[in-house]
Amino acid sequence: MGELRGKVVLITGASGGIGSKMSINFAEAGARVILGYNNNPTAATELCASLRGEGHIVRHIPILDSQRLVDLAIEIESQIGRLDVLINNAGVTKVVSHKNLNDLEDSDIDRIFATNFRGSFACVRAFQALLAANGEGLVINISSIAGTTAVGSSVAYCASKAAINSMTMSLGRALAPSIRVVAVAPGWVEGEYASRADPDYLQEQINRTPLGRIATANDVANTAVALATNMHFVTGCVIPVDGGRPLN
Prior knowledge:
Layout: E1 8-11, H1 17-28, E2 32-37, H2 41-50, E3 57-60, H3 66-79, E4 85-88, H4 106-132, E5 137-142, H5 146-149, H6 155-174, E6 179-186, H7 192-195, H8 199-207, H9 217-229, E7 237-241
Parallel strand pairs: 1-2, 1-4, 2-3, 4-5, 5-6, 6-7
Helix pairs in contact: 1-9, 3-4, 4-6
């Protein structure tokens, strides 16, 4: 407790399954959390009220609106004075069989890439100066093992996560040493998406995972907190949180 006292963390998609657990864990580590939402202010507000500690706030963060992101950076600098960690957690997908090329429409591809890649990049661009100000900024991009295995909900989703991984390496080099950039790449994660999967297929994935289960949101959140508290000599890389799934 208290390892991140005085630090400020901004999380996009903060009220989702992984986002909410990261909000909770960073608050428990002493950080002040800015909970970003796009479409569900009620969930974000209720989560904010439940967090340990003080000073947490909720903000509408439409990551496809670059000017809004710039305005928010100015607001945070004026009202809070710092930003130490940015977590690009907001993302979308559409389930389309990789064989059905015609079912993955141009609009689906554009939406997935705009949200998963362009939105994440726009956030880094908007908050770069704030993150660099103390010389120890950290960006955590929530990726997926789909970015390296090319197995996932759609071809576009896998490609967008590969783009996030490449961006992480590029920015890890470009923004050093004042900002570290790391991607966290889970496999299957317990939650709403996994609950909609075919039970037999999901069990097959569990059986083929060396550690014998799929990830929890807490596994992902704990990795993010570790990057902020202990893993200070890490940048420009992708950290898998997948139980060794690609090994089988």
